[in-house]
Write a sequence for this structure.
């Protein structure tokens, strides 16, 4: 299986040799992989699904790949990326679907970590505490739920894909479950998983409240975030502990995120990196908005990880002014925008120029999926490779952005 990108092999042709002789800058243009192009800047990673981690065409992550496609996907991941994140298999609902020490399904998660170890990749864990993809038993107990106005079972009050309205655990019970889960999962992969998304998407999208009205918040109170970080630090003192959220390009949401992290820092909570998901579109953010986003985040003095990068090319997903990713960024309705490939390439070039400008802080850039066919928003064809694992013009644009980086001498 040839895993190299055909268009730009690293074997120097006569023409290449001549060009190399005349200008060192041209040398960089010959680089054919993302991980090599950015090796002096940051990790370039990818979220992998279960088929890739396990090497079989199982149905998971809403992905339906044939075995030959899985083999190609794996080859592409190995060729192009030096960091991996698990798209779903380390989330609570997948790794501990049932209560107690016997309630864990470690198989897919072990396969994920072993994939990273055998391919010498920087391994990220995603995610420990989230309002979504958490089983109901985690929140269940004997305390009657409070009566709320406009209560809608399964409604958006608790965020997408989640709505448990039954009798609840006490604060102490929920903290105990959180502690046991984090100690077990982080402890199992101690020294192997280098970075953890400890708390995911806790900031409120809209309104004046700082935090999302999740069951974590309602049952434990706002210190559920600090507790999660403390438990994770206890389980692996060497792991980089990340707070991860989306729509940080939106100034109002970014302001809340910064207020949250500052307050955690004031309490000496071990938050060690900021994860900016960066589910964006071909229309926004502009270079200036992304530049401002990273400039503002840098005031926290922490490394920044671009954790879930993809660029929506669907017509329905271009209204990025709101902060709520579930209302806009997921939308892949209406077919692609015209000139989708070119606009995608332009936007990716834009974004990587900003990441390079901020490379003192940006340490990881992770694409959320290996190709358009396996992407959670496949209708928006948001990635660098098509469903046949062939590079799109956006791939060349990202490679070129590295070669053009004005801050390095090639
Ligand atoms: O686990 C069930 C399985 O039991 C069932 O048979 C199957 C039937 O469709 O569904 C499985 O659940 C799926 C789950 O992934 C795990 O595989 C859900 O349908 C599917 O909607 C879910 O989607 C994931 C989504 O998170 C859930 O919110 C996406 O694949 C994943 O890309 C996406 O990733 C999130 C990040 O974790 C956090 N930031 C936003 C990002 C995009 O939404």
């Amino acid at each position: 299986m040839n895993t190299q990108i055909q268009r730009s092999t690293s074997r120097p042709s006569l023409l290449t040799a001549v060009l190399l002789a005349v200008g060192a800058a041209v040398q960089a243009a010959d680089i054919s992989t993302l991980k090599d192009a950015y090796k002096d800047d940051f990790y370039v990673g990818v979220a992998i699904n279960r088929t890739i981690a396990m090497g079989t065409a199982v149905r998971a992550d809403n992905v339906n790949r044939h075995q030959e496609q899985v083999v190609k996907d794996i080859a592409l991941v190995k060729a192009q990326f030096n960091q991996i994140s698990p798209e779903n298999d380390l989330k609570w609902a997948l790794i501990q679907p049932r209560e107690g020490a016997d309630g864990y399904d470690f198989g897919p998660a072990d396969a994920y970590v072993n994939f990273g170890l055998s391919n010498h990749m920087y391994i990220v864990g995603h995610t420990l505490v989230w309002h979504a993809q958490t089983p109901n038993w985690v929140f269940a107990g004997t305390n009657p739920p409070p009566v709320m106005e406009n209560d809608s079972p399964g409604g958006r009050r608790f965020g997408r894909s989640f709505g448990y309205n039954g009798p609840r655990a006490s604060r102490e019970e929920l903290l105990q479950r959180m502690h046991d889960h984090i100690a077990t999962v982080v402890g199992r992969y101690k020294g192997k998983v280098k970075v953890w998304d400890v708390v995911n998407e806790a900031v409120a999208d809209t309104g004046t409240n700082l935090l999302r009205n999740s069951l974590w918040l309602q049952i434990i109170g706002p210190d559920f975030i600090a507790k999660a970080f403390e438990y994770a630090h206890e389980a692996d003192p060497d792991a980089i502990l990340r707070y991860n959220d989306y729509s940080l390009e939106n100034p109002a949401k970014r302001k809340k995120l910064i207020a949250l992290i500052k307050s955690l820092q004031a309490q000496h909570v071990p938050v060690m990196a900021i994860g900016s998901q960066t589910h964006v579109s071909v229309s926004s953010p502009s270079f200036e908005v992304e530049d401002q986003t990273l400039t503002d985040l840098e005031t926290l003095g922490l490394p920044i990880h671009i954790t879930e990068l993809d660029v929506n090319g669907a017509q329905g997903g271009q209204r990025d002014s709101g902060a709520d990713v579930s209302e806009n960024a997921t939308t892949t309705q209406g077919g692609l925008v015209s000139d989708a490939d070119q606009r995608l390439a332009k936007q990716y070039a834009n974004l990587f120029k900003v990441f390079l400008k901020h490379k003192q802080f940006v340490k990881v850039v992770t694409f959320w999926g290996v190709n358009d066919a396996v992407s959670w928003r496949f209708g928006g064809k948001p990635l660098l490779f098509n469903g046949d694992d062939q590079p799109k013009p956006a791939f060349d644009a990202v490679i070129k952005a590295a070669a053009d980086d004005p801050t390095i001498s090639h």
The chain has 14 helices and ten strands. The longest helix spans residues 171-188. The pocket of G3I is lined by residues 60-62, 87-88, 132-133, 161, 200, 246, 277, 308, 376 (CB under 6 Å).
